[in-house]
């Protein structure tokens, strides 16, 4: 049987994951809501 507590003690996160997480959080990414808000503002400005 697997001893989950013992396995968790051995766990070390991958460096690639840490690097990817750091790169993602440093970027200012627009999500779909930001895109929709921008489109609505542009359409109101054109009318």
Order of helical and strand elements: HHH
The computed structural class is mainly alpha
Q: What is the C-alpha radius of gyration, as a whole number of Å?
A: 21 Å
- The 3D shape can be described as elongated
Given as residue ranges, the uncertain stretches (5+ residues, pLDDT < 50) are none
The mean pLDDT is 85
Supply the number of helical segments.
Answer: 3
Helix content: over 70%
Head-to-tail CA distance between termini: 67 Å
Give a structural overview.
The structure is a single chain. This protein is mainly alpha-helical. Helix content is 72%, strand content 0%. The chain has helices spanning 4-10, 15-26, 32-46. The radius of gyration is 21 Å and the shape is elongated. The relative contact order is 0.08. The model has no long low-confidence stretch (mean pLDDT 85).
What is this structure, in a nutshell?
With 47 residues, the chain is mostly helical. The chain has helices spanning 4-10, 15-26, 32-46.
